[in-house]
Specification:
It is a single chain. The chain is mostly helical and 510 residues long. It folds into 2 domains: 1-28 and 298-502, MetI-like fold; 34-253 and 268-296, MetI-like (MetI-like fold). It is 76% helix and 1% strand. The chain has 25 helices and 2 strands. The chain has helices at residues 3-33, 37-40, 43-76, 82-88, 91-94, 97-108, 122-145, 150-158, 163-191, 195-200, 208-217, 222-250, 266-284, 286-296, 300-304, 309-340, 344-348, 358-368, 376-401, 405-412, 417-428, 430-446, 449-454, 462-470, 475-500; strands spanning 77-78, 262-263. Strands 1-2 form a two-stranded parallel ribbon. It is globular and about 70 Å long. It starts with a helix and ends in a 10-residue tail after the last helix. Residues 505-510 have low confidence and may be disordered.
């Protein structure tokens, strides 16, 4: 076996073994040792499990009901700013969960901008879930609908089929696998979500992930927490396998004539387009605007609190931990992405960290490495674990688009595979690598669950400081939490600009 090929692959493999496989094995051991039917017969635990599954299914249903018509409008109508709008659908993905939660509270919480208090109701969490997941289904729907052959649509229209019949007979069979894949991800994100459920669920509508955190952090009940984590892992693994099977089918290349988009004509189509854009803004933009609006109403004394040592220390910790995690993510992502081009097993492991919830992962690390639970090294490694797959995926995607003649020419001239990658392929991958690093930076800056489990009080980051101020009484603490959320939002927006900034010679105005 080529030694130059093996060495870069060993680093991500060893990292995944130490940071994912071993902690999960320890978590499974803890859950198996403490497994008891009495726990599952507890009505309180049954409600937590039922609600965790129910809110994920309800979010899937709402996202499909709202998102499919929006995707159809965006796929079939052409209008000014369409490409920009499709790019803006990526914005929620770079927003930290606490920012989204604060936006929902600023909108529909006590004294919210909307004037409607939905606290202690299930709708608060469901709306927060839609903020993140509706763009995912819309984007998948648009991509799927664009795979519909133009010839089939033309034949259906020629034969006089009405729009609803054309959709059901021609478009639905093509877009269905794309929607199913997106719905698997939405279920996984909602079921394994932690930050939104902690902030918006309250006492009654908290999920299993929040219950695991409560059992560990406040009750030190590791046995029951291990059982719940074991159940959560089982559900997550089943959904992740379904998603992988669907994605394998969607990865097959198709050569189809693109469906032509037409401008909206007549007042019914214009009304349909305006309604779709309004719904997207209400679900995906309004919470962010509500944060800004409430933050601008803060008193001058609260603005002055931004210069307090506690806030400055949290800002410094956020930048310090995220910067170190980003450097480690770059190293791991390059090695993993490069080696995965030749090893199919490594390609399948790129997104392994995303198949496990951060709460279960942090709990497993806490059980396996108790002596390092309050160390900077373990905290940064956990940050990098959740961030580096974006870099590896960017490297893989860019490598697949490279002309194979270039690295072959370098190899012919005597360059080793690693030298050919660094000197020839890597410079051409810079745009994709930049986007991957931006996603990784947004993930590290907004990480919340791992910070709660593994950090010390003096290591408070912006996310944990926001949560601390939300738990303190008084309007000043709420206003400061909103201001800190605006600061986090600014970091996320910077990452979004880096991700979506058009490349030279590729920028085109709508």
């Amino acid at each position: 076996m080529n030694r130059s090929l093996t060495l870069p692959a060993l680093l991500p493999l060893a990292f995944l073994l130490l940071m994912v496989a071993a902690p999960l094995a320890r978590l499974l051991q803890e859950g198996h040792a403490g497994f008891s039917l009495a726990l599952l017969q507890d009505s309180y635990i049954q409600w937590r499990l039922a609600w965790s599954v129910g809110q994920a299914l309800a979010t899937c249903a709402l996202a499909l009901l709202i998102g499919l018509p929006l995707a159809w409008v965006l796929a079939r109508f052409d209008f000014a700013g369409r490409r920009l709008l499709l790019r803006m659908l990526m914005l929620p993905f770079v927003m930290p969960t606490l920012v989204a939660g604060m936006g929902v509270l600023a909108l529909f919480g006590p004294h919210g901008v909307a004037g409607v208090n939905l606290q202690d109701t299930p709708w608060l969490l469901l709306y927060g879930n839609l903020f993140y997941n509706l763009p995912l289904l819309v984007r998948a729907g648009v991509d799927g609908l664009e795979q519909v052959p133009a010839s089939r649509l033309a034949v259906a229209r020629t034969l006089g089929a009405p729009p609803w019949r054309t959709f059901w007979r021609v478009e639905w069979p093509v877009v269905r696998p794309w929607l199913a894949s997106a719905l698997c991800l939405i279920f996984l994100y909602c079921f394994a979500g932690f930050g939104l459920a902690l902030l918006l669920g309250g006492q009654r509508y908290a999920t299993v992930e929040v219950e695991i955190y409560t059992l560990v952090a406040y009750e030190l009940n590791l046995a029951d927490a291990g059982v719940l984590a074991l159940l959560a892992l089982g559900v997550g693994a089943a959904v992740a396998l379904a998603y992988a099977a669907l994605e394998r089918g969607l990865a097959r290349p198709q050569r189809l004539a693109p469906t032509l988009r037409t401008p909206a004509q007549g007042w019914p189509q214009r009304l349909l387009l305006a309604s779709a854009l309004t719904v997207l803004a209400l679900c995906c933009l309004l919470p962010l605007l509500a944060i800004v609006w409430r933050a601008l109403q803060a008193d001058a004394t609260v603005w002055a609190m931004l210069a307090e040592p506690e806030v400055l220390a949290a800002l410094g910790n956020t930048l310090r931990f995220s910067g170190a995690a980003l450097g480690l993510s770059l190293l791991l992502g390059l090695c993993h992405g490069w080696a995965a081009q030749r090893w199919l097993a490594l390609r399948a492991l790129v997104f392994l960290p995303f198949m496990v919830s951060p709460v279960c992962l942090a709990f497993g690390l806490l059980l396996l490495y108790p002596q390092y639970s309050a160390s900077v090294g373990l905290l940064i490694a956990a940050y990098a674990l959740l961030a580096y797959p974006f870099v590896a995926k960017g490297v893989l995607s860019a490598a697949a688009a490279l002309p194979p003649q270039l690295p072959q020419a370098a190899r012919t001239l005597g360059a080793t595979p690693w030298r050919s990658f660094c000197r020839v392929s890597l410079p051409l991958m810079r745009p994709a690598l930049r986007r991957g690093l931006a996603f990784a930076a947004a993930t590290a800056v907004g990480e919340f669950a791992v910070s709660l489990f593994l950090s010390r009080p003096e290591w408070a980051t912006l996310t944990t400081l926001i949560y601390q101020h939300l738990g303190r009484p008084g309007a000043a603490n709420l206003q400061l939490a909103l201001l800190l959320s605006c600061l986090l939002m600014l970091f996320a927006l910077l990452a979004f600009v880096v991700i979506e900034w058009p490349e030279k010679n590729h920028a085109r105005a709508d």
